[in-house]
Request: fold
Amino acid sequence: MTHTAESAPAVDHPSFGPMAPDRIIIFDTTLRDGEQSPGFSMNLEEKLRMAEALAELGADVLEAGFPIASPGDFESVHAIAEAIRGPVICGLSRAAPGDILRAAEAIRPAARGRIHTFISTSPLHMKYKLRMEPGAVLEAVTASVSLARNHTADVEWSAEDGSRSEHDFLCRCVEAAIAAGATTINIPDTVGYALPAELAALFTMLRTRVPGAEKVIFSTHNHNDLGLAVANTMAAIAAGVRQVECTINGIGERAGNAALEEIVMAVRTRHDAVPYENRVATQNILRTSRLLSTITGFDVQPNKAIVGRNAFAHESGIHQDGFLKNAATYEIMTPESVGWSRSNLVMGKHSGRAAFRDKLRALGYDDVGENRLNDAFRRFKDLADRKKVVYDEDIIALVDDEVLRDHERIRFVSLEVWAGSKAKPRAVIEVEVDGARHAAEAHGDGPVDATFNAIHQVFAHEASLRLFSVGAITEGTDAQARVTVRLEENGKMVDGQGADTDTIVAAARAYIHALNKLLVKRARTEPAALSA
Reply:
């Protein structure tokens, strides 16, 4: 299918005004669908930080959560609607009055708010999930969109499992949603089943057959179960879709969603073949990706497109030779265009505060306050005394580690460990709890076990250790270790992360970080599992 801007009509949208045919709306669902990834849930403060970063990135719509799922989810959507200006703030709801009214209340403070309501339309989902007849589903479409439209002019309707729905029935549902006042129609590939050609044909069919289709924005939401989410998104754009639903790093249910950074850079890099525009400030992509990794404790794989640490790395001699002669031989975009730094400034123990501050600015940390700068610089000097070279990744880990611990009740102070083949491992931990300093000593089956036992003595809890993962941030025997710890208590799962050249210290930091997140979760009910 030929990509032409004229393939989609101009639409007058309640949130965006007259829409040019070549405008692509970036609908980010990192805070909703992305957070449904196992172990990826965020507390209120973390969601607000991500929402701020996404607004700075240039996302047009932020799906902030599912307000009916829990008091915590409602609070998050409401707080984001109050604090964030720029993007449309969206709340998800099922096709039920209670859901829609709760979503309307949550988004009320937003300068521009949207209710996103959905219901399944495939025979499989209607029969086994909804246990509803097609006629009842069609009635629910009209009722839910009509109710949502009473509370906001911007209403999105989604056909869950739309890619596996019967075409005639799907057309009837879309027609009903448009007639009831929906301004955006989303056809998700909920289970990642569709092929690009099939999805393009589906949108072409809907835009051709459904009365009133020229008055709304069509949207695509693709899951990555077959690794085709981004390809399906690009195919949908070619078929006239003008809103793409995506997440940072491609996180989401099961194998995830279409990755925002891959879609945006595909459009930018291949503008000759994909002549569309969006508002994303691509130089902020890497910083936003790393913020999400820091908050969730999950790094992207090294070979991940755009944001993986090998995305702009060249090891092969042939590649290196070509790159040195002309970077375009092996790079189709510049690393600076997505936020990577080409700075060759070497940071070490002789570097001063001015150089350190300059390095932070080069890495995108323009807003580091004086107190945080002092803390990060102190840790940097400690690290530099133990390493020959401090890499950019080391500094990023230091700063992010400080940011995450700004408001935590439990703070790491010091750790001493004795271990070896002839003695039972022993650890002495010192921490601050609510400002008061405490120390404890414990033995264990190994130095990590002894350390965790000592922490448990200082701060008793019933959480179980579910994951302990160690990875090197940089190369070499003096590399910083990044440790991820997963704790579970009463069905609540949290991940903590810590970084240090001493793996045991990194483990202690990660364990304490997880405990702090658990304290937040104790007062918060987990959102119900959803998909759309």
